[in-house]
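User: Can you recover a sequence for this backbone? Please restate the input before giving your answer.

Assistant: Of course. Working from this structure:
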C-alpha cells in the first residue's frame, strides 16, 4: 500500500487494552512511512455514553500519549482531537439529512450490542454514532480505514453514505475501504470468550489495559478461562478461549500460531499460560517505558499542531459539501 490517505480513530471511553492495540493501533505505525496518515482521538464519540468530564479530559492525553508510544510519529502523521475541529459535527449533521437512512442505522450490530435491552432509553448520539464516524472519515478524502472487526460495518455504512451523497449532489467524497487484520481483528474477553474485549467493560478482569499494573496483568492471564481438554491447538469453534489466548500470544510475542501449536505439543494449559503471561508482561513493560517518557505537554503540542493541519483539510471539504447542498 502506497500513497494512500489513511484515517482511523479511537474513542477515549476507557483505558486502551491489548484488543484495541492488536486489532487497530498496531497496524497504524507500519502505514505511516509510505502513506498520508491521519489519526484522531474521537472524543465526541465517547460522549455517546455518559462520561465523567475530568476523566474524559485526562483520557484525551492518555490516548494521545498511547498513540505516540505505539510508534505514531507526529512528523509523519497527523494526530488530532476530533472536538477541536467543528467540521466533524457539522458534516455529521449534513450527512444525517443527506446520505444516512434510518434503515441503515437499524442494521448496526454495535448499537444493538451496546444498547442491549435499553434501546429506547439510550442517547440518540449512540444510535447516530456511525454517521459521525462517516463524517470523520469522509472529511479527509480517506481511502483506507484500518480498524478492528467490530468497526467494519460502520466503514461500510460510510461507503454507502458517501455513494448516496455523491449520487444525489455530485462527486465530492472518496469511497473509503476498511482494512481489517486477518489475525487478531477481534480479541475476546479473558473471562468470556464469546464476548469482545472492550475498554468500557465494567469488569476490567476481562481486559488487559496497556497501562495495567504489570503484576496485575500477569494475574489476569493466569485467571483467564480456558476450555476443557488440556491440549494446545487453535480451533475457534471447539476451543474459543484457548484460541483467543493463542492469538494474543502470537500477536504480542511475534510468533506464528502454527509454531506455538508445535512448541506446546504435549504440554498443558498451566505452562502455556505462564509463558503467555511472560510475553504479555514483556510487551507491557516495553510499551509503558515508552509511554512514561512522553510528557503531557508534549502530547498537547502534538494535538495543537495536528489541529492546524487537519483543520485546513477538513474545512476545505466541508466548504465543497456546503456549496453542493446550498448552505452558504
Ligand atoms: N476486542 C477487540 N479486538 C480487536 N480490535 C478491537 N477494537 C476494539 N475492540 C477490539 C478496535 O479498536 C479500535 C477502537 O475503536 P473505538 O474506540 O472507536 O471503539 P470500539 O470499537 O467500540 O472499542 P471498544 O474497546 O469496545 O470501546 P468501547 O468499550 O468504548 O465500546 C477500533 O478500530 C476497534 O475496531
Amino acid at each position: 500500500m502506497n500513497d494512500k490517505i489513511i484515517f482511523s480513530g479511537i474513542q477515549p471511553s476507557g483505558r486502551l487494552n491489548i484488543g484495541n492495540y492488536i486489532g487497530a493501533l498496531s497496524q497504524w505505525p507500519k502505514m505511516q512511512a509510505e502513506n498520508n496518515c491521519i489519526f484522531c482521538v474521537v472524543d465526541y464519540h465517547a460522549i455517546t455514553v455518559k462520561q465523567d468530564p475530568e476523566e474524559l479530559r485526562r483520557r484525551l492525553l492518555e490516548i494521545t500519549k498511547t498513540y505516540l508510544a505505539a510508534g505514531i510519529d507526529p512528523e509523519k502523521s497527523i494526530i488530532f482531537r476530533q472536538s477541536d475541529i467543528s467540521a466533524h459535527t457539522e458534516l455529521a449533521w449534513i450527512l444525517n439529512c443527506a446520505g444516512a437512512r434510518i434503515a441503515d442505522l437499524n442494521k448496526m450490530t454495535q448499537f444493538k450490542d451496546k444498547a442491549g435491552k435499553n434501546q429506547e432509553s439510550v442517547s440518540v448520539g449512540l444510535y447516530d454514532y456511525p454517521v459521525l464516524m462517516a463524517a470523520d472519515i469522509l472529511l479527509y478524502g480517506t481511502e483506507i480505514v484500518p480498524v478492528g472487526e467490530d468497526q467494519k460495518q460502520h466503514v461500510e455504512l460510510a461507503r454507502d453514505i458517501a455513494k448516496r451523497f455523491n449520487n444525489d449532489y455530485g462527486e465530492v467524497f472518496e469511497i473509503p475501504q476498511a482494512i481489517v487484520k486477518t489475525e487478531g481483528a477481534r480479541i475476546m474477553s479473558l473471562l468470556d470468550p464469546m464476548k469482545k474485549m472492550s475498554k468500557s467493560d465494567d469488569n476490567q478482569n476481562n481486559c488487559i489495559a496497556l497501562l495495567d499494573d504489570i503484576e496485575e496483568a500477569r494475574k489476569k492471564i493466569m485467571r483467564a478461562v480456558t476450555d476443557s481438554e488440556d491440549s494446545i491447538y487453535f480451533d475457534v469453534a471447539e476451543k474459543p478461549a484457548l484460541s483467543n489466548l493463542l492469538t494474543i500470544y502470537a500477536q504480542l510475542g511475534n510468533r506464528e500460531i502454527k509454531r506455538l501449536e508445535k512448541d506446546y505439543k504435549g504440554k498443558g494449559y498451566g505452562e502455556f499460560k505462564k509463558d503467555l503471561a511472560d510475553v504479555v508482561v514483556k510487551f507491557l513493560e516495553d510499551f509503558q517505558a515508552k509511554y512514561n517518557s512522553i510528557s503531557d505537554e508534549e502530547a498537547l503540542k502534538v494535538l495543537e499542531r495536528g489541529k492546524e493541519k487537519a483543520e485546513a483539510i477538513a474545512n476545505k471539504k466541508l466548504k465543497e459539501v456546503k456549496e453542493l447542498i446550498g448552505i452558504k
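That completes the design. The longest helix spans residues 296-325.
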